[in-house]
Specification:
The protein has about 500 residues and is α/β, with parallel strands linked by helices. The chain has 19 helices and 16 strands. Strands 2-1-3-4-5-6-7 form a seven-stranded mixed β-sheet, with helices on both faces. A seven-stranded mixed β-sheet has the order 8-9-12-13-14-15-16. The structure holds cobalamin (B12) and iron/sulfur cluster (SF4). Iron/sulfur cluster (SF4) binds next to helix 8.
Length: about 500
């Protein structure tokens, strides 16, 4: 039995992220680890990191001659994943093709019904489903056996058939550590600057799955569930020790959706990090209402140097009634102050263009960003629509996504995307005009954001596909020039007054 997994070109990181460092694909590494434990011959091909051409990818398949070819997908990179599956099916039809990952999980039927080259979509966690698929194939593809194989969507007698959801893996400590040995770890360029320490070699880790909250735009509560499953502190530390020893990792990115869902567990992880004297620095994403100053101080002592958290909007109504974020802006003020006192870099997420958001409400967000421009890293996005989320439902109801919208087709005219800056995912536009959205983005970039306008010009031009795109980019250019001119004039005016 041979299973070959691919991260597609451009990859998990999609086009606009490729200037950044490359990161190992944790999901495939977990599945690789369990299949390997079962004695299955498994290969992982990170076509993104290796910058493989389509021809080279085809050759990888011919060389390995797999029984299954599995491809990971996010909504951003879905077209690359589809292309890879189509290509494999054509070049090597003996292999059964499987699509997995967040996009496939949330848009399973859409994928299978529009892309006949996909034999199976695996929904949700892939570890146990892949073992069972391998057993099904080894057992001679027994008729009817697929119906009781939880967590898959496939074509059966011309109809799309989805089996019941797979039960989540309750004890994550039962999973082996991600099989970093299956990828050329040393070829990844994953490094991160730690203040005062320089650029250190980094690695990604997940210590829990799920999030108890349910923000309207987010895929996690549906994809991973609202019951958070957590690895024990001992299991987390054992993986860190292995990463330090085998791969000389110095920075750990904890990619848990809410690392502090259980503050007690965070405290225990910190205690163990200190007790074992592990010389690592780390960053994580937290909910700001679940953190206290003493806990933050302990996290800092144990190596925390960078902390991300979402406020999403400065407006109380948008945050708590529309997004369902359920956080108070006073928690933001406190947490930023504590980060400053403890010398931790605060990275705050903000989003513009929520359903019903008015210009005045958006001003509340941009004012906060401007207020804290010297003390935080602000990560900004225009609201993206992801499949399976409550926001997708709203978007369809409001006609932001056309009635016949499919995630598998490129809808250039009917929907708004901004691939150069925001990826190839439909944006949610409601009350704010395009000119207002552009102004908000540029005001953020003038406040120290990293939206490099000039570097993006060639890619903007190559991304224009429709009259709508052309108009939007023209509006953006006009707003940019207007704001730039205003700034130049006000600087000059100040100089004249001073003189
Ligand atoms: C780390 C991470 C990143 C890293 C990626 C680095 C990397 N190479 O891992 C960075 C910071 C670059 C990043 C960027 C972005 N991300 Co991100 N990210 C994550 C995060 C927090 C963890 C991913 C991870 O490692 N998961 C752990 C592994 C174990 O899970 P997994 O990858 O899903 O794999 C499991 C299953 O999906 C399945 N599976 C996966 N692939 C396959 C393939 C096969 C064949 C099979 C059978 C099964 C299978 O089995 C795996 C094991 O159970 C997730 C949230 C989350 N909870 O997963 C968001 C998440 C993936 N990101 C998301 C988003 C939206 C983004 C951004 C668009 C954010 C932004 N606004 O810019 C960008 C764009 C990136 C892109 N091209 O898609 C969304 C994706 C939603 C969607 N429908 O695609 C998620 C789900 C967050 C969310 N809550 O909405 N991200
Ligand atoms: S945005 Fe964060 S807090 Fe909200 S549901 Fe997603 S992971 Fe949970």
């Amino acid at each position: 039995m041979k299973v070959q997994f691919f991260v597609p070109p451009g990859g998990y990181l999609a086009e606009r992220w490729t200037k950044g460092s490359t990161m190992p694909p944790l999901g495939l590494l977990y599945i690789g680890a369990v299949l390997d434990r079962e004695g299955i011959d498994v290969r992982i091909v990170p076509a993104d990191m290796k910058k493989l051409s389509w021809k080279e990818i085809r050759q990888e398949v011919f060389d390995f001659q797999p029984d299954f070819v599995g491809v990971t997908s996010t909504t951003e990179n879905r077209f690359q994943s589809f292309k890879l599956i189509r290509m494999v099916k054509k070049a090597y039809p003996q292999a059964l093709t499987i699509l997995g990952g967040p996009h496939a999980s949330m848009a399973a039927e859409d994928c299978v019904s529009h892309i006949p080259e996909i034999d199976f979509v695996v929904r949700g966690e892939g570890e146990n489903t892949m073992i069972e698929l391998c057993k099904w194939l080894e057992g001679g593809k027994k008729h009817g056996a697929l119906d009781s194989l939880a967590g898959i969507t496939f074509r059966k007698e011309g109809q799309i058939h989805s089996t019941p959801p797979r039960a989540p893996i309750l004890n994550l400590d039962d999973l082996p550590f991600p099989a970093f040995r299956l990828i050329p770890f040393e070829d990844y360029s994953f490094r991160f600057p730690v203040p005062g320490k320089g650029d250190l070699s980094a690695v990604n880790m997940m210590t829990s799955r799920g999030c108890p909250f349910d923000c309207n735009f987010c895929a996690t509560p549906i994809n991973w569930g609202r019951h958070v499953r957590m690895r024990s502190p001992e299991n987390v530390i054992a993986e860190i020790e292995q990463l330090v020893e085998r791969y000389q990792s110095r920075v750990i990115f904890f990619f848990d959706d809410t690392f502090n869902a259980n503050p007690k567990r965070v405290e225990q992880i910190c205690d163990l990090l200190l007790e074992r004297k592990l010389d690592v620095y780390w960053k994580c994403d937290v909910r700001m209402d679940l953190i206290s100053k003493p806990l933050l101080a302990k996290m800092k002592e144990a190596g925390l140097f960078h902390l991300s958290f979402g406020l999403e909007s400065g407006s109380e109504r948008i945050r708590n009634q529309i997004i369902n974020k359920k956080v108070d802006v006073k928690d933001l003020h406190n947490l930023i102050r504590w980060c400053q006192e403890l010398d931790i870099v605060p990275n705050v997420f903000f989003i513009f263009s929520h359903p019903t958001e008015t210009w005045e409400e958006a001003q509340e967000t941009i004012h906060l960003i401007e207020q804290y421009k010297n003390s935080i890293e602000a990560s900004i996005a225009i609201l993206h629509i992801y499949p399976g989320t409550p926001l997708e439902k709203t978007a369809r109801e409001k006609g932001v996504l056309p009635e016949d919208f499919s995630w598998a087709k490129k809808y250039r005219k009917a929907i708004i995307t901004l691939p150069t800056a925001q990826g190839d995912v439909p944006l949610f536009k409601d009350k704010l005009t395009w000119a207002q959205i552009s102004e908000l983005l540029f005001r953020w970039s003038f406040s120290g954001g990293t939206f490099s306008v000039y570097r993006k010009i060639p890619r903007v031009i190559s991304n224009i596909r429709s009259g709508g795109d052309f108009i939007r980019y023209t509006v953006m250019a006009w707003i940019y020039l207007k704001l730039k001119l205003k700034r130049l004039l006000s600087a000059k005016w100040n100089l004249v007054i001073k003189k």
